[in-house]
Amino acid sequence: MIEEVLFNPDDKTKVTLLFANTTIDDILLKEDIDKLAQKYPDRFKVHYTVDKLADKNAKKAWKGEVGYITPDMLKRLLPIPAKQDDESLLIMVCGPPGFMKLLSGEKTKDYKQGELTGLLKKLGFTEKNVFKF
């Protein structure tokens, strides 16, 4: 999806990816994602967060976030709606059930979007701003 946006010269959408993983080694396609961020610095920002770092050397080299996603982290790294009915922002969320519950609430059993809950609701996002995969 990110490539579709970035590779289209007529699309001016700005994309921010907050990619949460357990460890650095768990980050899928990191090299490819980093290349896109370097190629499109005005349109694509990537932020990584990991639950833990393996050792002191990893701590020195790591430039991303460490720890679970928090409201403060979201405020620092993601665009926040300017007003209640701001439809110019879309946050797309995917992950395991616990992650979905924390950020946005889970989809319904019949795979509909369901009620928006979690950190994104607390930060002022609405159902119009959030899509759950």
TrEMBL record:
UniProt cross-references to PANTHER family, sorted A to Z: NADH-CYTOCHROME B5 REDUCTASE (PTHR19370), NADH-CYTOCHROME B5 REDUCTASE 2 (PTHR19370:SF171)
Protein's UniProt name: Oxidoreductase FAD/NAD(P)-binding domain-containing protein
Keyword Oxidoreductase among UniProt keywords: yes
One function term, GO molecular function aspect: cytochrome-b5 reductase activity, acting on NAD(P)H
Pfam families: NAD_binding_1
InterPro entries membership: CBR-like, FNR_nucleotide-bd, OxRdtase_FAD/NAD-bd
Oxidoreductase listed as a keyword: yes
Occurrences of domain Oxidoreductase FAD/NAD(P)-binding (ranges): 1-102
Assigned keywords, A-Z: FAD, Flavoprotein, Oxidoreductase
Cofactors that this protein relies on: FAD
Domain of life from the UniProt record: Eukaryota
